[in-house]
Amino acid sequence: MRQFMLPVAALFLSACASPPIPPVDPQQAWVDFTTPTPGAKLVMAQRLDGKNLNDGRFFQVPPGRHELMVRFDFEVPTGGSLGGLSQTQDRTCFMTLQYDNFQAGQRYVLEGRSLAFTPNIRLYNAARQLLAEERSVNCI
């Protein structure tokens, strides 16, 4: 019976796994996500050029000008404490960034950060040069 249960359990767990990220297309630019913010829970793609995306784990864009919208979820302090532990609450922000010069075959990093209640995103190239920052932030 145990021998039967192991394959069944593996089957159920694999059904929950997300689909593999597609291979990098050398004709497009690839944008990865990162965050150094403690308490950050999620940085993911939301929209590309005003269109919702099916897979928010990455952006892959043709060369040229694009507007990226990113969802950034992170914790903020509430000021209260419970038994000596600081309490936090979740904050979700949607931030838009525009960059005019994406290059085919290049990798970029979009970094989400927050300082208390104030989030921002920055786009860096592979040499870690700052290319763009958000132009709008909408938090809920």
From TrEMBL:
Q: Which domain of life is it from?
A: Bacteria
Task: Give the protein name, as stated in the record.
Answer: Lipoprotein
Per UniProt, which keywords does this protein have?
Signal
**Signal peptide residue numbers:** 1-17
